[in-house]
Each structure stands twice: as C-alpha cells, then as structure tokens.
Queue: 3 jobs
Job 1
Amino acid sequence: MDLNNKVVVVTGAGRGIGRGLATYLAGKGAKIAVVDLNDADMEATVKECEALGVEARAYRINVANEAEVEQLFSRVVQDFGSLHGLINNAGITRDGLLVKFVDGKLDKKMTLQQWQSVIDVNLTGVFLCGREAAIKMIELGVEEGVIINISSVARYGSFGQTNYAAAKAGVATLAETWAKELARYNIRTGAIAPGTINTDMIAAMKPEARERLVQAVPLRRLGETRNIAQAATFIFENDYFTGRCIDTDGGLR
Ligand SMILES: NC(=O)c1ccc[n+]([C@@H]2O[C@H](COP(=O)([O-])OP(=O)(O)OC[C@H]3O[C@@H](n4cnc5c(N)ncnc54)[C@H](O)[C@@H]3O)[C@@H](O)[C@H]2O)c1
C-alpha cells in the first residue's frame, strides 16, 4: 500500500509511540484520525500532522467501550470518506506481582481490577477496533486494508506484568488469526513488538535507572518512536506481509 492519501486511524496517538506513528505516516502523505482520551495531547498531534500538509482530526474515545468504538469508525468514514489502515496502539500498564510473600505470609496479589483494566484496554480495545475497522473496510470495498497491533517484548513473559504480558501476547495472536480470516477481503495484518522505546516517560527517569535499561539492550541504546513507525511503514508497504509480528527491540529478548 502506498500511504499517500490513505486514511489511517492511530489509537493512543496523543503522545509517545502513537504520536510518533501518526506524524511519521503523515510525512508519507497519510490522512490521520488521531484517537486518544486526552484532548490537549490530541490537538498537538493533529497540529504536527497538519504541518506536514495532510488532513488530521481528533476523536476522544475510550477504545475499551464498544459503543464509542462503533461510533468512531462511522465518524471517521463520514469525515474522511474512506478507511485504509488502523494501528491499535493505545495501551496502559498496571504492574504488580502475581503473588508476593513476606516472611512466609501472603503480602500482596495482583488484583482482579489490575488484571481487568489492562485486559480491557490492551486486549479488548484491540479486538473492538480491529473488528469495527474490518467491517468498514469490507463495506467500503477498499482495494487493500491494513490492521497493525502494537504488542511488546513483554509478550514473551515479563516479570511483574502478568496482565500486560498476556494482553501483548494476545494481540500478536489476533494479528495472526485476522490474517487468516481477512485475507479474502484484501485486508492484511501485522503486529509490532517494541522493546524499550525512548518516550517522555523514560526520558523523565533518573539517569541511573535509564542507564540500567540501556545496558540490558544488545544495541546499547533505546529505540526511538521512529523505529516503530518504520516497522509499521514496512507492514503497510509490503503487500506480501501479513499475520506476523516484527520484534523491534534492539535485540533485547
Ligand atoms: N514505550 C515503550 O517502551 C513500549 C514498549 C513496548 C510496547 N509499548 C506499547 O506501545 C504503545 C504505546 O506506548 P507509549 O509508551 O507511547 O504509551 P503512552 O502511555 O505514552 O501513550 C499511550 C496513549 O494511549 C492513550 N490511551 C490509554 N488508554 C486509552 C483508552 N482506553 N482509549 C484511548 N486512548 C487511550 C493514552 O491517553 C496515551 O496518550 C502501548 O500499547 C504500549 O504497551 C510501549
């Protein structure tokens, strides 16, 4: 798919990797539907995309809410006239150990609320957005559609992240399943599993803590949001790619 003039929805595009994805694809000529919960952040992303000469609009919705997601895709098609791509990027963490014992006694456990909130956004949100995007692409009869799920290196198992690791393994598997189901409608899929990416959150860490993260990476540097956008661009542009997950982690795993 040539991204020029294509309509792409990016969830969680208010900041971080999502903003990096939105602006990089805008630089390739894509029109961007910016989806997030934060109005001010979305406005900044929309302005950055517009400065690159493309149309961009903000949509404040919760990706875990079925009715809001259904409305989102109808509005996007109304506003832009089409839909060619979706990047499921919105995500949260609520880290904690499965169980923690102190002096032989149970001290803490991951709460159902901790588990459920991450599953709701990171897994159910991806399911809902992927489903609604596929419906619109099929109804519109687009020549080619692309759906990308942002997974994580945590998909291989991650200390203190029972909820997050399960969701991130899940979204890689959704990409694989959808590749099989949606190929007949000319929809390709893919997932990207970032390692540690240099977002505002990491920039704000204490230098020693940040250095520890860097030292764990074979390439001895953190990834940039651009590196994730490059992987997404590869998935969009390569029409023999579908269903696989691109680990983009500097060799971290
Ligand atoms: N930063 C990393 O190192 C890293 C590594 C691996 C994977 N990831 C994944 O990449 C994605 C983006 O990460 P990031 O570091 O940019 O995160 P971030 O927290 O900086 O940005 C996430 C964005 O998603 C939005 N969001 C959260 N819940 C939402 C909801 N229910 N509905 C709509 N929007 C919602 C937030 O408002 C925020 O703007 C996430 O899926 C994350 O799990 C990040």
Job 2
Amino acid sequence: MADPGRMSDLGVGAQHAGEPPLAVIDVDGVVADVRHRLRFLRALPGDWEAFFAAADVDPPLVEGVELVRTLARDHEVIWLTGRPERSRAATERWLRAQGLPVGELRMRPDADRRPGRIFKRSELRRLGSRRRVAVVVDDDPAVVELLRADGWPVLRADWLAYEPTLGNAQNEEGRT
Ligand SMILES: [Mg+2]
C-alpha cells in the first residue's frame, strides 16, 4: 500500500475527535449520467479522449445527487473516481455546477492502468487507515463485489442500468 508519492496520507492513523465519518462516492453512473458518451467506447478502438471530453455535459442523476446532498449533512464527502487526473478541472467544475460539495476528489493517475476496482480498493484502504468510512457508493458490480469482499460498507447505485461497455473498459482495459 505504501506509495512514495502519497506518503503524506500515511501514518496519521488517529481518529480525530469531532470529525464526521467519510462517505466515499463514485462519479460516473452515480451522480453523472454517462449514457450519451458510451458510444465513444463502442467504437473499435474506443475513443477515450472523446469519452472524457464529453463528460462536462453529462446530465446529473437526480437519485445520486439527492443521496450525496443528504449524506453531506453528517459525512465528509470524498469523491473516488476512475476518471483520470487530466479530467480534474472539468470534473470539479461539473460537480460545482450541480451544487454538489467538491471537497476531496481522488482520481486515477493518468498513467495508471490498473483495473478500476483495484485502484479504488487501494485508495479506500488509504482513506480508511485514518478516518472511519461509513459508506461507499458505486454503480459498477465488479467494484461493489471487490470492495464488499474487502470489508467496506458499499451501497450499490442502481438507478442507472449498468452498461457493460463501460464495465469492460474500466476493468479489463483499465483505461478510465
Ligand atoms: Mg461508476
């Protein structure tokens, strides 16, 4: 788990009195409706730049947005997404435009080719070493299964039918 680039995250350990527990939330398929851009991944080969570039016009998913607003009352919201770092500015802008708390946004490093579920498990272990994680929300069945097996309290976002195109891309190609 130790990653020299993230040493500031390690060694804290202590639970700080009065700090709210964490709610760790995925973006795509939970608060962002990705359906309009999945067509970029159905092409062979998939057009990843176009896929990410189109994210700034994702419609919000009302169920997810309401859930996050409710959780934010007594949790600290941490976003955990398979989107690459290069999408950070657009993602933060989009979250703000929906009236969502931006706070901490954890994104996959641009050169990271690990499957999405492995990246997320690694980030969760890091987060959980210093704060209590009260809930994790993700829409990807493969992510949900792995994180539950790792002991995390995961709520499966099921308000958008999961699109196998994206699941295959995230978990096998490790591109998002
Ligand atoms: Mg997702």
Job 3
Amino acid sequence: MISDKIKNEIINIVGEACWLDRPEHLVCYAYDAFLEEALPEAVVFPKTTREVSGVMKIASAQQIPVTARGAGTSVCGAPVPVRGGIVLCFSKMDKILEINTRDRYAVVQPGVINADLQKALAPSGFFYPPDPGSMTISTIGGNIAQNAGGPRCLKYGVTVDYILGLEIVLASGKIVRFGSKNVKDVTGYRLSSLICGSEGTLGLVTEAILKVVPQPEAVKTLMITFKDLDYTAKSVSDIIGSGILPAAMELMDQFTLNAIEDSAGLGLDREARGTLLIEIDGIKEACEKEAIKIIEKARANHAVSIREADSPEDRAELWTARRSAYGVFAKLAPDIVSEDITVPVSQVPEMIRRIVTITDHYGLRVGVLAHAGDGNMHPLIPADRNNKEEWANVIQAYDEIFAAAVELGGTLSGEHGIGLAKTEYLPLVMNQDSMDFMKTVKAAVDPDGILNPGKFV
Ligand SMILES: Cc1cc2nc3c(=O)[nH]c(=O)nc-3n(C[C@H](O)[C@H](O)[C@H](O)COP(=O)(O)OP(=O)(O)OC[C@H]3O[C@@H](n4cnc5c(N)ncnc54)[C@H](O)[C@@H]3O)c2cc1C
C-alpha cells in the first residue's frame, strides 16, 4: 500500500501532473495486448533519468513493486503489474537525442516510438532494422526489453543486434551505463545483451545508443500464392536452403488471407491455400537475379500466381495485407491468442501440419501467420474466454503446439517474449540448473524482487 507520505515524496520528484492514482486512470494501465489484467496502485510518468532513479530509491526502500511500461503492446502480459505497486510509464521520455550517420548510431530515450525513429532517419538514407508489426505504436524501451523482432529481422537480425550501449536505472536507483558509441566494444561483460529481452525484470532502460545502417539501393517485393499449404512451406525451406537470404519472408494461410479479404477487400486470391510475401533488398542487379531464383523455386513448388512490386507504392499495397492481419483477427472473436513458437526452417512444413492437426482435433479455427524465413510462427486462434469449453480446448491445443515445436527442435518464443503467457512452459526448454542461474542473476541485481515481479522467475 502506497501511503500519502510516499505519494507526496514521489510527486515531489516527478510533479503532480506525472502521477495518476484514480481508479478510472489505473484501469488503462492494467493490461496489454494479452489476456491478463491487474491494477497498479499508481502510474508515474518520469521525464528524466534522475526522476527514474529518485522513484526507484523510494520504491526500493519501501519494497514497492515497479513495472515499466512503454506502449503496452506486449502480447505476453509482460507489462501487466500482477503485484500492484507502481507502473512506470516511459511515454514522456520520448526524445531522439542524437543521430550521427557518419558514425552510424542514434541515441534515444526509451519512450521514442520505433516508427518515429525510422522517420527521423529516412532523410539521411539510414534506417534502424528492427521492425515489429507494432512499430507505429511500440516504444524503443519496450522493443529492447522484449528483444523485439519483425519481418526484416530475417536478414538484419533482432533488437539485441542493434544495441551499442544502454543507460540503466537499477532497482536500487543507481544509474549504470554499458557499451558506447563504438561499433566494436568488448570492454567488460556485454550487459546490454542481458538487459535486452529481460522484460523490465533486471533494470529500467533510460537511454539507448542504437546502431543504424544505410538503406539498401533497391528493394523488390514478391507476393506468391500456392494451391497447397505444404508446397508454400516447402518453398520457404527451398529458398532459404538455396543460399538466398531475403530481407523478409512472410507466410499467410488461407484462413488468414480470407479474414483479411473479408475485412479489407484487397483483391487477394481467396482460393490460395498459402501465400508468401517475400522482400529482397541490396544492389539492383543482385535483387533481380535473386527474384528470378525465388520464382524458379516457387514454380517448382506449383506456385499459381506471382506479383512483383518495385515501387514504394506497389510494395506498400502488397504489405497492407500482411500488416492488417492482427487487426482483422480481432474482429473474428472476443479474444485472440497469438503464439510465437519458432522452429528450424527445415521444420516449417511439419510444424504447420501439426498446428492444423492439433487445432482441427479441438474443433478450433486457426490462422497461420509466420515470419517463415526464420521459422517464427504465429498461430492465431480466435476464441471466446467466456466459453469455458472452447477456452479449455484453446489451452490444451497450445500445450500441444508448444510441445510439438520443442519436439521439432524449436522453442517457445521467437520475439514476443515470456511474460505471463509462457512462464509455466519454460521447463520445456530449460533444465533446473538453467532456471536456477536465471534466478541467481535476478537476485544479484534485484535482491528484493521489486522489478516487474511475477515474470520469468
Ligand atoms: C499488432 C501487434 C503486432 C506485433 N508485432 C510484433 C512483431 O512483429 N515483433 C515483435 O517482436 N513483437 C510484436 N508485437 C509485440 C510488442 O509490440 C512488442 O513486444 C514491443 O516490443 C512492445 O513494446 P511496448 O513499447 O509496447 O512495450 P510494453 O508492452 O509496454 O512493455 C513490454 C515489456 O517491456 C518492459 N519495458 C517497457 N519499457 C521499458 C523500459 N524503458 N525499461 C525496461 N523495461 C521496459 C515492460 O515492463 C514489459 O515487460 C506486436 C504486438 C501487436 C499488438
């Protein structure tokens, strides 16, 4: 319970306008894009690192749980304050502090929206590769805490590959810095990689130095449809296996495509059992050669239609379908469960077969959406939590999908993280000693367990 005295101490640090504790405000910070909800006691909006540090000193002395929040787009319950306490929302720390393309970095505060950074970089011919589907709303702090990926991470890598340095406020309120503005830096432990993906359980990101890269000379997008989902999936492993590394390789099944068509009317082929959206980038001539090879592989797998786009407008049209997928699923049922299993690319066809068999067995609808080139799949099940029988089937189906992914050499999450959604499944991929090691790390940096308690360990 936060007393009036503590409330006033925190208000003295951040100002009255940056403190919320009325029930109608708190409810807005009780959930993310997953299913669980829990009310905080207060929401605090720091504007500087010093303010974050000041709040943490009080929280640490009073053992108040603190859960960081960016935009709340997590799909695993990561920012849900399950032990109450304070939600520390970084939306007011949203400044791009420096862009230096000569030395290829940008320095940002954690509340910067990913797409705003992209917009700021564009005129200089540079970009920041991590591109989660939520990039127009999610924050760099949230992206770092979740080690977010996205379509073009197939070629370019995920968030952790772009962190040069971090400023972190620890549970104690101490301010620490790791890394630097140098592309090469092996001075000490690479602690920024430990923080990346730690979901706000080890420290609070208050500033980040990010690597940025030049935009490619040419980009080409292909949309290829297939009459058979098996051949769609096989094309993925055939293309990757032939040595081509597209920037993005997205797969949508017929259910997903029809849901998009019903909602957006984009003129997509409703008969197609599977669709691949493939983007290649680099030098123009190389892109053309790769496109020819990709089309050959697709034709060998009985592709039925191939659309090519070179101009930004045509490419945007092809991407509209993929980007609207989550939104249209939200119209199908009161709830959607979107999971994030990842398997070796060679196992993509088998994993898709298993997803379909398992969901059929439980009488559930499923849309398969995948960053297929890196084996990262999002089976989306629309359902209703209030329908107890259906919901029990959803849980059972996911238990089996997780087990199948692990059996095929895969893992629980490629990009969405663990949060509340997957903590109970961790023993499927980690032995007790590995779990204990995570607990040791947590206890060393947050001995009282006040940072995002109830997650991971
Ligand atoms: C439509 C949609 C599409 C999506 N597509 C993708 C995708 O393609 N790839 C992908 O990886 N994810 C995707 N996501 C999931 C989500 O957008 C990402 O996990 C994103 O990185 C979360 O950012 P956020 O700012 O919303 O963070 P939040 O959801 O607010 O928080 C996420 C986690 O980060 C912690 N956190 C936030 N800020 C800080 C900070 N400053 N310091 C320490 N910890 C902090 C929180 O405590 C929490 O644990 C998608 C979500 C939606 C709704």
